[in-house]
Amino acid sequence: xxxxxxxxxxxxxFTMGSLEAVAIARAPLLExxxxxxxxxxxxxxxxxxxxxxxxxLLAFVNMVVADGKELPATVDSVRRQVLSDVDLYLSNKRKQxxxxxxxxxxxxxxxxxxxxxxxxxxxxxxxxKKTDLS
Length: 134
Hints:
It is built from 4 helices and no strands. The protein is an all-alpha fold. The protein has one domain (2-100).
């Protein structure tokens, strides 16, 4: 009878140990998810009333993090690598936008805005067209 009790207690310890191992293994995944969410929040323009950002990328990241509680170590390392690649991509895109804005101020403007800004740099203003005939 003690062997049954020992087996059940060993199974309980194994279950507790595996749950702790899963929690420890998921911690870097959750940290990566938080970093990606922060990058997406800074990249997307939102108003004050919309606190939650809805993005297909965030849905994918949440699916990767929540997909399967206990997976083999190789699958877990692949998930971690995918999330770190997404994080690296988003941070590099943010840096690229910042550098483009800094060194190429005409980037992202419409053609009319670029013409007006270019004319202003040499001291000219584009004449205003009169629309009313009176």
